[in-house]
Amino acid sequence: MEISENMVVIIDYNLSSSSGELLDTSEGRQPLAYIHGMGHIIIGLEKALLGKKAGEKIKAVIAPEEAYGTRSNELVETVPISNFQAPDTVKEGVQFQARDADGLHIATVTKVADDEVTLDMNHPLADETLHFDVEIKEVRQATEEELSHGHSHGTGGHQH
Ligand code: ZN
Questions:
Q1: pTM (2 d.p.)
Q2: Segments in 1-75 forming alpha helices (H)
């Protein structure tokens, strides 16, 4: 069965940066399950997996444009520390989720000076070319229930 839209795909993967640093892996955890074509995984990886079969191993090098985007200075802003509910936890390097008009971002505190906090809402992997090593474990048709829920059930998916 080849990977196409609305298939549940279960993969093991290693994700490395261009410098060879391991950024993420399914090793030691459950494999990752997703429904193809729903934007659950980055577009570049969906493209690389399209048409592949269970048992295949692929390597994919994905440019930032098809991964987590390129950095934008517009996503760096300075806000008063009084905006934070717990100002004493706001320190350089701390990450948290922030919601704005475009949805959910990971915000990283890059500077705390006087009463001002500089936040970087670029994705931590923005500008990174991603190197994936993927082993396709299973490919199957998504069930009606999975499609209506918008996620896969069972191994690597939602357990409910
Ligand atoms: Zn469900």
A1: 0.81
A2: 43-49
Nearest to 12 by CA among 76, 65, 55: 55
- In angstroms, what is the span from residue 42 Cα to ligand 1's centroid? 21
Cα(145) to ligand 1 centroid in Å equals 7
CATH fit for domain 7-67+126-149, picks 3.30.720.120, 3.40.50.1000, 3.90.105.10, 3.10.50.40: 3.10.50.40
CA 148 / ligand 1 centre spacing (Å): 8
Report pLDDT digits (tens) over 7-48: 999 999 999 999 999 999 999 999 999 999 999 999 999 999
Sequence-ordered alpha helix ranges (H) in the chain: 43-49, 144-149
CA of 60 to the centre of ligand 1 (A): 29
Spacing, Cα 94 to ligand 1 middle (Å) = 32
Domain spanning 73-120, CATH architecture: Beta Barrel (2.40)
Residues 40-98 pLDDT 10s: 999 999 999 999 999 999 999 999 999 999 999 999 999 999 998 888 889 999 998 87
The single-letter DSSP state of residue 128 is: P
